[in-house]
Amino acid sequence: MSDAVDAAADRPVHTPGEVLLEVKDLKKHFPLTQGIVLRRTVGHVRAVDGVNLTLRRGETVGLVGESGCGKSTVTKMLVALEKPTSGQILYKGEDVTKMSGRALKQYRREVQIIFQDPYASLNPRMTVGDIVAEGWSVHADIAPKKGRLQRTQELMERVGLNPDFVNRYPHQFSGGQRQRIGIARALALQPEVIVCDEPVSALDVSVQAQVVNLLEDLQNDFGLSYLFIAHDLSVVRHISDRVAVMYLGSIVEEGTDAQVYGSPAHPYTQALLSSVPVHEPHLRGLKERILLQGDVPSPANPPSGCRFRTRCWKAQDICATEPPALVDRGQGHPSACHFAEARAVVPTEG
Ligand SMILES: Nc1ncnc2c1ncn2[C@@H]1O[C@H](COP(=O)(O)OP(=O)(O)OP(=O)(O)O)[C@@H](O)[C@H]1O
Ligand code: SF4
Ligand SMILES: [Mg+2]
């Protein structure tokens, strides 16, 4: 799977395999209701409004955007916890929204999720051993009953937890360790894809790096594919082969990490990147700082045309009437801006 080393990032460059997940024009509109006795629908929250994504075997796609832009709603639809309003999720070519019975059960095994808050997602009354082994009650064929304790302890060891702590409870672990429990629980089902919904956002920076490194090691060992969600572009860069930037329910720019970080073409990506810290002291003064005006508009009442126009310093009349398509406008990768223009926000060596 890994056949070269990205010198800058000092990590293997993956040669991605076949398409595993394909998301096409995915939408989720939550009804807004009014009234206590007679509930009427008075509008919709357009949490996800036309997302397209592709995830290949062995690769990591980063999905980045501010709070409330719809990232978790995308992940919930991907792991079949929410039904899309419209659009398709294809897994190995099969439409997940039409799956039932054995096919859905198999899908739920192969596509696992790791949540942002490792404490809230672990049952406080269950021991770590029971949490890790829980999925085997549904997928009994993966681990024969007799060897389950040993298998659980092997998994704990693999994710960097002391296997002697198998009978401890989640509150007896630190935040980083609890996230490792969540990872072991996902791994127990031998998944192909792990959807990581902000898995390190709640952790200290030093612990974040350890958990990201663990996820990379596991990817190399087991050939896993990740959809890695974050609101911080710097976290995603370390682990992603490709990055998609999301704003108010849809993707505004997509490309390899070199394209998105080196020559961002959408004003929103440029603004996000300008807030990422630069670690090299001699480059710090060269970075542009773009301060975004205003708040993210409500997804219940998004702006017409380009959704970013209320905060965009480049907006013109056409931006209020024509929604910009996500296409390559000459920058070598797609962006959803009528006036897309590559701009190096983060300085690089040379
Ligand atoms: N069940 C629901 N009913 C109504 N609105 C919802 C529901 N779930 C999410 N939303 C709304 O959809 C929008 C997107 O929410 P979502 O949780 O997907 O965002 P997010 O990008 O994951 O944010 P964060 O970074 O804070 O986790 C928000 O405006 C949220 O309030
Ligand atoms: S389409 Fe217009 S408003 Fe939207 S990002 Fe581009 S310039 Fe800004
Ligand atoms: Mg979220």
UniProtKB/TrEMBL annotation:
Gene3D superfamilies: P-loop containing nucleotide triphosphate hydrolases. It holds the Pfam family ABC_tran. InterPro entries: AAA+_ATPase, ABC_transp_ATP-bind, ABC_transporter-like_ATP-bd, ABC_transporter-like_CS, Oligopep_ABC_C, P-loop_NTPase. CDD domains: ABC_NikE_OppD_transporters. Keywords: ATP-binding, Nucleotide-binding, Transport. Residues 21-273 form the ABC transporter domain. GO terms for molecular function: ATP binding. This is Dipeptide ABC transporter ATP-binding protein. It comes from Blastococcus carthaginiensis. The lineage of its organism: Bacteria, Bacillati, Actinomycetota, Actinomycetes, Geodermatophilales.
